[in-house]
Amino acid sequence: MALAMDKAALMAFLESDFPQAKDDFVVEEVAEGRLTMRLKVTDAHLRPGGTVSGPSMFALADVGIYLAILAMIGPKALAVTTNASLDFMRKPAAGKDMLCEVRVLKLGRVLAVCDALLYSEGQAEPVARANMTYSLPK
Amino acid sequence: MALAMDKAALMAFLESDFPQAKDDFVVEEVAEGRLTMRLKVTDAHLRPGGTVSGPSMFALADVGIYLAILAMIGPKALAVTTNASLDFMRKPAAGKDMLCEVRVLKLGRVLAVCDALLYSEGQAEPVARANMTYSLPK
Amino acid sequence: MALAMDKAALMAFLESDFPQAKDDFVVEEVAEGRLTMRLKVTDAHLRPGGTVSGPSMFALADVGIYLAILAMIGPKALAVTTNASLDFMRKPAAGKDMLCEVRVLKLGRVLAVCDALLYSEGQAEPVARANMTYSLPK
Amino acid sequence: MALAMDKAALMAFLESDFPQAKDDFVVEEVAEGRLTMRLKVTDAHLRPGGTVSGPSMFALADVGIYLAILAMIGPKALAVTTNASLDFMRKPAAGKDMLCEVRVLKLGRVLAVCDALLYSEGQAEPVARANMTYSLPK
Fold it and tell me: Which domain holds residue B19?
């Protein structure tokens, strides 16, 4: 299966459809069923104590998984998250970007299922684990 | 079991420990094992299409559940979310605040388990469902 | 919305379509969007230590939620579980049946979302919490 | 980190502590943070239609994840599942064993977090995905 959107196409989609997100997120790598997304961590993503907040990690996983699906089916803005589950396992490193490694586990007619591991850049152990289900437009 | 923190104490804690959140969230009601939290929806919480974003709903559930636990155990800033799971069921209404109704299902020595239903104000059917586990400090 | 199946119709469906389950489960109550299911606990449901096993609780929640959906849409054997999440909060009581109280939170064209609390009979505090998503046949 | 229990020690533990499970499950491979478990599928594991039932897949993931943790910490029968989440993605193949590939993502003092992919033997695409959290004994 060829990719429907490459890295440049995904970034252009993000800029046009999610302008408020385009400064936070960068697609690092994309391949069939795989995508790595970077969150450029700024003060806006932190919680008290200086670590990346839960909602920011949720957003990173959600955008990364969304784009991993679009890379395979093309720019369909109507795909919506129906279920999201996250385990927060370790404290993110202060002052480091986060990287989210997505796997597409199922791409069906109606539902897509993906999971992801989230890392503080430069660290071997994952900070968080996420899985999400998306409902796909007809 | 008496409440360790009432509505005023919870709002004071939010203002001192989460100053960036204090303009977004209001504790509407609190009782033993129950709390209702309001998200004052502004443009910052919206996603393309004008509905409340997933990360904003995650934040609403997370803050509401956190304060429901603190209402019972007192102001311990070290409680951390270890697991969060959300089902997004309906589109939030545009231009409406959201209300999050939390239940504390278990308050153990080490873990607390809660769930919540999220509503657009004035609508009978829930927009989303959340459950979260918190690890409690010793 | 009237019920498509009452208690007797649900039990008849269970006996015809899930004969291996009919001795374990009893529909106690059913109403619009609500159902209570009993697991008649026998040695087959126990794990070492004498408490009800995780797979038995999973089965109780799955069957209870399935029948709560069928009560509203009629006997469609093709509904399938797509996502299941459980929190195990307390040890089930030894030698007690378990009761599962289901709520239907969303009944859409394609997906149904439900949650449930599981109790050891006669105890006030829930043993487990479950939520499940079902994909509905066309 | 050396393994605390090898394949033979894990199988001996299963036979002594979970005698009802010892005929169903086989540890195929174990390494640091990894384990592959086989479910020897028999009629007892099937649901109407002839595919492996949800509770059987739950049991496979639960036993596989449990033994992956014990392989690292030794035979502590008191570890208990606190959260389990599964996505059922494809129909299991009829008449095939199932294999469960576990990863240990975090092994903390109090909690362990793992995930797993479940396959019908001989098929490339996973049938289900699971993640579980275990509470560890002191």
Answer: 7-135
